[in-house]
Amino acid sequence: MKSYDTLQEAIKGLKEDGFAHDFNLEKDKIYCKNLNMFYKPKEFEVVETYRFEGMTNPDDNEVLYAIVTSVGDKGILVDAYGTYAESISPEMLEKLRFKYE
Q1: Which tens digits make up the pLDDT trace of 26-69?
Q2: Second label for 23, Cα 20 to 30 Å away, from 12, 15, 38, 58?
Q3: What is the DSSP letter of 43?
Q4: Four-residue CA torsion sign, 25, 87, 39, 41
Q5: In this structure, are residues 85 and 93 in contact, taking their beta carbons and an 8 Å threshold?
Q6: Cα separation of 88 and 2, whole Å?
């Protein structure tokens, strides 16, 4: 897994590596507007995760997920760290849980 200093650098690097689609988080699935497709937790895998902390404000924490769907679509999901923890399903929460390595 590569190392990135900023969120923008990570997004650019992942896009260059083929993670071309943008996913949006919903309660129990992710959505890709470009493909007009929804994916439930069992239909995608998080293959890389990057966490970025704001330098001036500790509330500016974001997580970038590199995702591959069960049909091979590759994209990214950006989430403000912990923001949606109470508004998504337990399955989504487990799927997107930040794993420290």
Answers
A1: 999 999 999 999 999 999 999 999 988 766 555 568 899 999 99
A2: 58
A3: G
A4: positive
A5: yes
A6: 28
pTM, two decimals, is 0.86
Domain count, the chain: 1
- Provide the 8-state DSSP code for 98: P
Q: Which two tokens stand for residue 53?
A: 């902390």
Pick the closest to residue 64 from 28, 16, 38, 25 (CA basis): 25
Pick the closest to residue 25 from 78, 67, 63 (CA basis).
Answer: 78
Residue 69: inside a domain, yes or no? Answer: yes
Can you tell me the distance from the alpha carbon of 29 to that of 54, in angstroms, rounded to the nearest whole number? Answer: 27
66 assigned to some structural domain: yes
Structural domain span for residue 16: 7-95
Residue 1 lies in a domain: no
